[in-house]
Structure formats: structure tokens, C-alpha cells
Design a protein that fits this description.
By secondary structure, the protein is α/β, with parallel strands linked by helices. The protein folds into five domains: about 5-35 and about 540-700, Rossmann fold (3-Layer(aba) Sandwich); about 55-135 and about 390-535, no CATH class; about 150-260 and about 300-365, no CATH class; about 705-790, Golgi alpha-mannosidase II (Immunoglobulin-like); about 805-945, Galactose-binding domain-like (Jelly Rolls, Sandwich). The protein contains 22 helices and 46 strands. The strands form eleven sheets. It has an eight-stranded parallel beta barrel, surrounded by five helices. Helix 4 runs antiparallel to helix 14 (about 520-535), helix 5 (about 70-80) packs parallel to helix 6 (about 110-130) and helix 9 crosses helix 11 (about 345-380). It is globular. The termini are far apart.
Amino acid sequence: MINQSFNRRKFLKLGAATSILPFVPSFISTSCSQQEQLLNSDQYLKSFKEPPSDSRPFVRWWWNGNRLSKNEILRELEVMKSAGIGGVEINPIAFPNDADPVGYESLTIFEPEWLEMLEVALKGAKEKGITCDMIVGSGWPFGGEFLKKEEQSQMVTIETFDLQGNQNYTFTEDELLSRVNPEIHSPNDQVYKEIIQVKLMPAESSELVTGEDITSQLTDGKLQMEVPQGSYVLYYVVKLTGYMAVINGAPGAAGPVLNHYHQQAVEDYLNRVSEIISGKIGPMGDHIRAMFCDSMELEGANWNDDLPDEFKKRRGYDLMPYLPLVLKKVGHMGNPLEEEYGTRFSPEVEAQLKRIDLDYYKTRLELFKERFLQTFDQWCQQNGVKSRMQAYGRGMHPVEASMEIDIPECETWLRGGIGEEYPDRGLRGRAYTMSNKYVASGAVLAGKNIVSCEEITNTSNVFMATLEEIKIAGDQSNLSGVNHSILHGFNYSPPEAPYPGWIRYGTWFNEKNPWWPYFRQWSDYKARLSYLLQNAIPRANVGILPALKDLWWKYGPQRDPFPSHQYPDYHHNLWEAVHQNGGGCDYLSEMIIQQSEMNQGRLSYADRSYELLLLPAIETIEPATMRKLAEFAEGGGKMIFIGPIPHRSPAYQDSEAQDAEVKQIMDTLLAEYPQQVIRVDEPDDGLINWYGQLMKQVGFKSYIEFQNTHRFLNQTPYLLGGQEMFFISNASRNDELTVSARCDLETPKHPWLWNPETGDKKLYPYQQESNLLELYLPPASSMILIFEPESQGEKFEILKPQKNSMNIEGSWQITLQHVNGESTKVNWNELQDLSNVSELKSFAGEIHYNLETDIADPETISQINLGKVHGISELEVNGKHLGSRWYGHHIYQPESAIQKGKNQIRIKVVTIAGNYLKSLEDNQTAQRWTGRQPVRPMGLLGPVSLA
């Protein structure tokens, strides 16, 4: 029997003919106002060619140690403007320990001299058309030396002693407290410790016992007790206040971190910031677009003094008897220590404690949302600025938290394996973090049109990064749902600072970088791409409900975006498989499902609509969510349970009844709807193919069908002005991809290639009769295809390397112009990798290759292929400049440059600076970043060929 609450909706038995019909993707519904904005292709094209500044990449502008001057602020703004940067995030931060301040003094944040520099920056940026965001305070998470004790972050944790019975024990309070020293990454100088609970527990128990509270026996700085016969464990709970310091806080905003669970402290902190800034510059919104909160790396913060009262009010029972049993010993970055300690309970009791732990975490999620997220957002609105935040990590729901913020932000890292690797599971070879898809989903579910990203975050190959790698990483970021880049970062560094300058963090976006003159090509590309993505609607007909409660049940809340555990291990790759098979999806939450409407086989929330739900490895789920899933099945919706299926609720109170309801609904769904409620085994290797085969079995169509999938091939579908749009990317640095594809179109249309590099729009080759596209993607390339009714226009010519080519041979005259001012000349008969030449492996700068070659028939030459190039290339033939290439194939079309007879070939290759910096053994800044990095290949390897 289905319980009473479930019976409120009568199940309808659908006929077989209905249940086996193939599913066709639905179009995302849009409001009238959205439709009005999405009508004119010509208007889009105009802004695509010349994108607005707010579509351009922004940079995190590190004010290193606040060693500022008016002239330098204005100079750097001009440098950024010329490079195509549209905005800055003013980010005061600690000065790098290994940098030379060259006589500049540190200013204290929010004091008069610093405020004068802020005013110079804000007004100077406004005059130049540069948008300004600003971090709240400094570093992360924010705080300051001025915080009172009760305003500082709090953590409760435990320590234990194994005790034997029939003995007397005495511990001093100092002895007990000295054992509680969590491995804090950024410890504060002054930590307040307080024992708030002491319990004596049996060493083993098959029942949920809460032990003897002996807190009262801690008197006059000593704990004295007589332990009865048997084996016992002494638990004591310690509250640490002010244990964490702001990470890399600048003078005036370093010191202890704010308690984000203390609403009055949050309000007072934020109001202090706004009063000081507005007192100098006037209303903040006149000069600042958004105030920003960086990573919430709170290192285990989990407490406020009224949390026990709030828990009892919200959950209906008292937390305190169970507190020592649900707390964990704390390790690095707040991660729980995964070792055995404390009472050994039976599995049944452990399950009960897991439920209490989930209630404890749910209470913290609620308090963080109410007291920090919403308070921060309201403060921003009151001051006329937008809220921008990386709203993930312990204490925040990875999807729902982003829905509270005007501009939710995620992060994309430049790290090893990008463009080279892409295993079936994990993040190797991926630039985006697991938070990206969560944040992008939360943003679109809440109707946000900007998904911001701390992009090209870099701590492992700072000076070694190439523009090609930056493009691949940025393209992957866009695939995950990002549509605006905040680059990591632009270091405030005066010209007189010794080479390479003041470097706090990040990819070396700096005018001293050899490839900086070409950066504008990437920033223009990125601006055009961002403009389209910000004005398009991401399509998704698949919703994924992550097994978050089971992750928390098994491993506890995670430190996103770098969790210690992922569950299931393929979860963060499942959305990739959907997209790589031509679909589109969003991550959902139980709250989203519970608040959704069920319409004609679709689950609808706001403007989002899903025909298929994927539920991977979900065992723990709320009954209210199961009731909504039952409504979904009743209306014709389809859902796939992967691996384990729901059989329990997270509830501690009334758990038996709630577990029974979950199990009863699940059993009924499987029995009554075998065509719609499908259970499949978890995937082995080959996740992309596994998902593709699964969709064929259930008759579910994608937006674009690739006849052959590939690990490096991915796409994201959109609607732009009611027209189907696809962003398609090849993430390989070496492989070119050729693939046939069909698009699911409502009406006959024609594919147009919108080129973000040039701003041009051309008709892409298309077999309309068979609805077939032959897509060609060179290495590291991407494309925007928009299907439009228009069928006439300039056709796009696909440029591929030709097989019947002739290698150019001869003596290369080579001039190397080093960034240090030196110049070297060599002659080579064969091209070489500079990193393999001992006297050149530390080179950085421009390499000029010159060769004279005879060509008998210029009419037969349609391309010049430089072959393998490690760097950025430019080509000149007989004095005619043929352009530059900064990623993928280095192929040029000679046009009329080639003449009969002798031809002068001039090739310039621009390298990275990393190998040179690695050689500077006495340069602390250089060694800090390059010491553990291998030498990278450099130069023109060829073969250079004509075809």
C-alpha cells in the first residue's frame, strides 16, 4: 500500500504506445521580455563584431601590499585597456615575500592615503571605459585586525582519550586544550580555546547512548574523574574562536576571519566597508559594478553560540547530547581526519548518527544562507552594486547558494594535462573545476544571465603558460556554462621592479611577457564569444540530481571545488557525457524538484524544463522529493536510476516512517512504470559511449548527434533569438577532429559560422537534404554555429593541411632577440627545439627564421604550413605580412605573395619566458614558480611545407 501522502496523487497507468514513444528535446520556454531581446540577427552581429566592454575579459588586479602610486595605477589601467581588458577587480593582497618593493611603502586599507588611491583607480577606470569590481576587504575569507572576539570565526571540534576502568584520572585544562591544534593552513596569531562539553562514553556500544556528561567536573583548571569498570572513551568538545587568519590579507584587513554565521557581525563588517568607501567617493554604485567574495575556505568553521538553540527550533530536538559523536577531529583545510577514534558503534547506531550529522549540516546550510549569503546580497543592493561571489564550499549548497547571488562565480584552473589528457573519470585534463557546472546550473535556474569565472587560475606553470593552453582552458570553461572571465590575474607591478616584477599569483598577464603583444587576439576572441553566450539561453532537457546527501552521509561535507571525495566517482563527468553526446543538462537539487511543476511529461522550474532525470547512486532522499518524482512519472516523465536506488530518508526523527515512504514510492515506481522509471548498472570505463548507448535504448534524442564521439570533442547547445546555436570545441593540442553531425531542428535552417576571432559570419558547408554537417576542428579550435533561415551569403572555406606537400629545405638564418636585450645569430640546416640546444634552452623572446627558396609555379601553391610550432608565429613572404597564428595549425594562405623564382620566407616565433626564468637561480620570484617545472619546448620545429 502507498501511504496517505503519496495517494493524494493517483497514479495513471499509461498505455504501452505512449510509454515507448521516442523523446524529442523541448525548447526552453522564455518570457516575452526575453523573446523581445532575441530577435534581430543583424543587431547581434553588430555587437558581436564590436563587443561591449562588459563582455570583455576582466582581470583580478592584485594590489600587491597596497604599495600604490597614482601614476602607476593610471599607467596599468591604460596597459589593460590597450590589451582589450574590459574590467578590473580591485583586490588588495599581501605583498609577495620574495619581491623587491623598490622603495614603495605599504598603505593601510581604508585609511585616507589608500582611499585616495582607490579614488584614482575608480575615476581613472571610469574615464577609460573600464568596469570596476572590488573585493570585500582583502584576501579570503575576509576579516580584519579590528574584529572583536565575538565577531571572529568559530569552530567546534573534539579530542578523545581511551581510558581503562577502575582508575582515577586527572587532566589539566591546559593539557587538554594543548592537544587540540587543527592543521590550519592560515593560522591566526591569537586563538581562543574553550572546553564546552566533556563526556565519558563506553568504548563499544550497540545502542545509541550519549554517555555521562562530566563537564561540571572540570573545575579550577583541572578535570578529575573516577572511571568505573570497563573500557571507556573521554570525549571533550573544544570551541576555537579566531583560529584562522585571512589568507594573504593586506595591511588593515589581515588578522582573524569574520564569523559568517553571526549575522550582526556580518552586517557590522559590511556596513563599515560601505561607510568608509562611500564617505570618500560617494555612492558605491556610481563607480563599482559589483562587490566580490572570494573562496569560502573557512577551514572548518561550523559554529555560532546560538547554533544549539537554532538547531532545536528547526530540527525539533536537542543537538547537544549528540554533539561529540557527530563532530570530527579536524585536519588540513578543515578536512575531517579519516582515522579511527572514539566509541565503536554498531552499523545501525552509526546510521542514526549520520542522520543527526545531516541535520546538523542542514542547520548550518540554512544559517549560512540567511546570515551571510542573503545579508551580503541585501547589503550590495542597498549600496547600488551587484553581489558577486564564489558561493560554494563547506556551509553552502553547491547549486542553491549560487541562486542567491547576482553574479555567481566559479573557477577554472590552468594545470597539468590540459590539451594532452582526458581520462574517463576525474579532473585530469580538465581546466574547469567540479564547481563550474553546479554554479552555472544554479545561475540559469535563478534566471541569471552572467556566470562569472575566476579563470586561468594558475599556481603550477605561471611563466610557462602559452596562449594556446589559455584558449583551451577558457574554451573548457565556456563548455561548463561560464560566459564571463575574470582572469587570474594582473599583478600591480611598477616598471622599475626587477624582472619579472611583483608576482602574487596567477598566469603572467603582464606587458613584460613575450607573448603579451598577441594577447589582444585572445581577448577579442573571448569577448565575442562571451557576448553571444551572455545573450543566449543554455538549452537543457536533462536534469541531474547529484547524490549530495549520500556523499555527506558517507564522507561528510566536502571542500569544493577540491573535494577529498567524489561520490559516485563518475558524478562530475556525467554532465560531460551528456554534452559530448549532443545533449544539454543542469544539475538540480531536491529543493528545485520539490518546487517544480509537472507539465506534460516535463519537470519545470521557472523557465527550465526537463524531460529526463538522471539519478546517479542515490540512496538517501527526502520523501517530499520522492512524491514529486512520482508526479513526474505519472505525467509521462522519464527517469533513470543509476546503480543504487533510494531506500531511506535523511531524517533522524520519525525515520522509520519516512524511510518506509521513500522505499514504498520507489517500489511502486519500478512496478507501475517500467518503461519510464529505469534502473541501470553504474558505468564501467567508457562513460561517453555508455551514456550514448543508454540514450539510444530509451529513445531519447539529443540536440546535435555526433556520428562518432571523441574524448576531446564537446559542445554546449543554446538558443539565440529563437535560433539553435552550438558552441563546439576540440580540447586537444595535437589531434584534429573530423566528425559528421546532425542537428535536431524545428524548421529547415542553414548553419552559419560566427567566427569569434574575426567577428565574421559565413555560411558553413551543409547537406540540407540529409541534414548532415561535416565538422572539421583543428587542434585547440572551437566554433560557434547558429542555424538561421537565411541561406545566401559568403561561404566558409575549410582550411586543412594538405597531404601532397613539399618541404622547404635549405639553410635557415636565425636571429634570436632575447628579452634581456641580447641578440644571437645561428645558421641551421635542420630546425630544432631550442630546449634541446644547451646554449639556447634558457632563451625567451623572439626568434626570426629566414630562408630563401625557389618556387617554379606559384599558381600551384595554396598554403604554407609551418608544421610544429612551440610558440606564436608570424609569416612574411617577400615582404608581405600574412598574419599570425597563436594556436592549433600554423597554416597560412599565401594569396599573391609568392612569386616565380626566388622567394624570401621570414618566420617569427615568440616564446614563453618560463625557461629563461627557470635559469635565473638567484631570482627568488622566478625560482618560486619555475623551480619544480620542467623545461618546455620552444621554437619552430617544422617541417615547413608548401602545398
